[in-house]
Design goal:
- The strands form 4 sheets. Strands 1, 3, 4, 5, 6 and 13 form a 6-stranded antiparallel β-sheet that branches. Strands 9-8-12-14 form a 4-stranded antiparallel β-sheet.
- It is of the alpha+beta class and 280 residues long.
- The chain is globular and about 60 Å long.
């Protein structure tokens, strides 16, 4: 869906460059995108169709974003409820809406990723001890920033048994070779820290582990503030990598970056979405 210009956003350029280097940086900048996460609740009937949608704080969101979500979600279809369950099920929903500027100056908005979670506190995987990593020493002085999306396999003791960096989005632009170095250093730092993390397991989960969780690790520029709900953020998305121990991921089509907050997302929860996120 197309909407009028929604924000004026810029990406910090990491360093000066030659004319040829500037062209390379401009090519990287052209791949940047702006986005925001929208949260709410989606109510699902037993047959998998959507009965209703409640968007959180719609008055604080851009009109085009609200219209996109309200237009798209009613067309979704989830897997049917288990036999004997007829009640409407309400799930917490978070979706990431992405905007790309078009030649006519308008923005093409689409829904790129989503997450659905049971609102029952007993189904939540909580952080017991998730000390953040230190800023990579190899990047000191660069003022580089970005977010690493880490996949963690959690054992029955709440420890991180396996850790993998799925994707690294950067909030700066540079030549591609430098961007690859930044992603590598941020991923290495995040994975190293995550190996020491501890989690509080879901109280209502009758099945034994391991559990799989996704956690964002944010590296910010000096003096930079975290993005608030309803604000656009701009970044250059990195390539998605699949963890070798998590190949049977039935949520792969939902993306990795629809976070309502920085709390761990427990994968494999609730009813699966059967249709595409965005309507063609």
């Amino acid at each position: 869906m197309k909407f009028a210009a929604v924000a004026a956003v810029t990406l910090f350029t990491l360093s000066g460059a030659t004319v040829a280097g500037k062209r390379a940086v401009d090519e990287v900048r052209a791949r940047s995108e702006m986005s925001m996460v929208v949260t709410g609740k989606v109510r699902i009937k037993a047959d998998g169709s959507v009965e209703g949608l409640d968007v959180d704080k719609p008055s604080g969101l851009p009109k085009g974003v609200v219209e996109l979500v309200q237009h798209t979600v009613p067309h979704w279809r989830f897997e049917p409820a288990a036999a004997g369950k007829e009640a409407v099920e309400a799930l917490n929903m978070s979706v990431r809406v992405v905007g790309r500027k078009q030649a006519d100056g308008n923005y093409q908005l689409t829904m790129r990723s989503a997450n659905f979670a049971d609102p029952d506190p007993g189904t939540v995987l909580k952080a017991r001890s998730l000390p953040p990593p230190s800023y990579p020493s190899a990047l000191e002085g660069t003022n580089a920033a970005g977010t690493v999306y880490v996949l963690v396999r959690v054992g029955e003791a709440g420890d991180a048994q396996e850790v993998f960096a799925e994707q690294v989005n950067l909030s700066v632009v540079a030549e591609e070779k430098e961007m690859q170095r930044l992603r590598k250093e941020f991923a290495r730092s995040a994975v190293s820290a995550a190996k020491r993390w501890k989690f509080e397991l879901p109280k209502n989960d009758a099945e034994a582990g391991p559990w799989t969780a996704r956690v964002p690790v944010e590296y910010v520029q000096l003096g930079q503030k975290s993005v608030k709900y309803g604000q656009w953020e701009v970044y250059v998305p990195g390539p998605h990598q699949q963890a070798p121990w998590h190949k049977d991921d039935d949520t792969a089509g939902l993306g990795v970056d629809a976070f309502a907050n920085n709390e761990p997302q427990l994968l494999g929860q609730g009813r699966r979405l059967l249709t595409k996120l965005a309507q063609e």
